[in-house]
Design goal:
The chain is α/β, with parallel strands linked by helices and about 375 residues long. Helix content is about 50%, strand content about 10%. Strand 3 (about 80-85), helix 4 and strand 4 (about 110) form a beta-alpha-beta unit. Helix 6 (about 145-170) packs parallel to helix 8. Bound molecules: iron/sulfur cluster.
């Protein structure tokens, strides 16, 4: 599909669907789809910040900054509403700035999910909030039909299966795709309606599935999202593959599917409580470390790149501890402190290239020992 995100969304609107601007990161997309709403996720719009700075503290991350700028520049005027999941204090703050102070001139919805540690009421709380969101949306978008929700849950499940297959092939070095092409495809799920996304993923799988095993060094990419995209391009140029990711808008939220219970709300709850560890849900360092090591073992990766969005509190709380733990286990890691859409500075590029050299030497010494 070769049309832009905006063109696609406008096309959907012409078809009679409604459009919801959704801020990161976790939300029950199946409920929106079942109401014929297209979620248009807002992570890193390519904009120059001109107005948002006046409404935010200087130490707020660029996900929030760019999201607010998008609204202030009037680029969301064609949307029918906004959804704010309770991801972190910064998104909460943004919701308040938009809803209470600036005036979004659109209906705003809020979605709360339980944080870890989960008490015995967490599941009921989550189910209650799923149904409360559906009830809120009803006023603007009509009642949620259970048949439609079941159908969209099935589609969500199919998407997770396809993504799982792509991630598994990549981990097994049997995916003939650049890092840049992989994430360009995955990220289309941030705005495509499920039938279009399924077709996109199926096509990508057919084109890239490979019988031959790929050579070259492999790393794990951790953080919020694969931006600046120049990181991926540089890794491609250096013939380094991201073997797996620990990204909030990647595998931390995309690969979850479970046995299909009869009730779609129960299914969505099952998925939520089976997500991999993430600091935005309050996971412990030990759980995150176990998870990272499992990704390293599954892919044979020889290093971890933490691409941390500047001022992202949830990530910055964990990264020094994770880096320390990896060091104890002899796994090289690199921390990049990046601003979205700002490219890679010369210094960052040099650090990344030097890190890849270390990973290569590490890989060769292990290969030689074997
Ligand atoms: S980058 Fe971090 S601080 Fe910013 S919205 Fe995402 S999780 Fe919150």
């Amino acid at each position: 599909m070769h049309i832009t995100r905006k063109e696609y969304l406008l096309e959907q609107k012409e078809k009679g669907r409604r459009l919801m601007g959704v801020f990161p990161a976790l939300y029950p997309r199946e409920i929106l789809w079942a109401l014929d709403i297209v979620p248009a996720e807002i992570w890193d719009p390519p904009l120059e910040i001109r107005q948002a700075g006046a409404h935010l503290q200087p130490y707020i991350c660029s996900v929030v900054r760019l999201g607010l700028e998008l609204i202030l520049q009037g680029k969301c005027d064609f949307l029918d509403g906004f959804l704010f999941p309770h991801t972190c204090d910064s998104i909460q703050n943004l919701a308040s700035v938009i809803y209470d102070f600036i005036g979004a001139r659109k209906p705003c919805y809020f979605f709360y999910h339980p944080k870890i540690p989960h008490g015995h009421t967490a599941r009921d709380y989550y189910l209650k909030n799923l149904k409360a969101l559906a009830a809120e949306l009803k006023r603007q978008f009509g009642p949620l039909k259970m048949d439609s929700l079941r159908e969209k849950v099935d589609m969500g499940r199919r998407i997770s299966e396809l993504l799982g297959e792509l991630y598994d092939l990549r981990a097994a070095r049997r995916l003939d795709a650049s890092n840049e092409a992989f994430y360009r495809t995955i990220r289309k799920g941030e705005y495509l309606f499920p039938d279009d996304y399924i077709a996109e993923l199926e096509g990508f799988l057919t084109q890239t599935r490979s019988e031959e095993s790929r050579n070259g060094a492999t790393i794990i990419l951790s953080g919020i999202l694969p931006n600046p995209p120049q990181i991926l391009t540089l890794l491609d140029d250096l013939d380094v593959q991201v073997g797996h990711d620990d990204l909030l808008n990647g595998s931390r939220r995309l690969l979850i599917s479970n046995e299909k219970p009869g009730d779609p709300f129960e299914y969505m709850a099952e998925c939520y409580f089976h997500m991999p560890p993430c600091p935005t849900r309050g996971s412990s360092i030990s759980d995150r470390m176990r998870h990272l090591l499992s990704l390293i073992n599954a892919t044979g990766a020889k290093g971890v790149i933490f691409n941390v969005v500047k001022f992202c509190e949830p990530e910055w709380f964990d990264v020094p501890n994770l880096q320390e733990e990896l060091k104890k286990r002899g796994v090289p890691s690199l921390v990049l402190d990046t601003e979205l859409n700002q490219g890679l500075s010369g210094q960052m590029k040099t650090r990344l290239e030097a890190f890849i050299e270390i990973v290569r030497v590490h890989r060769e010494s292990i290969t030689t020992k074997h």
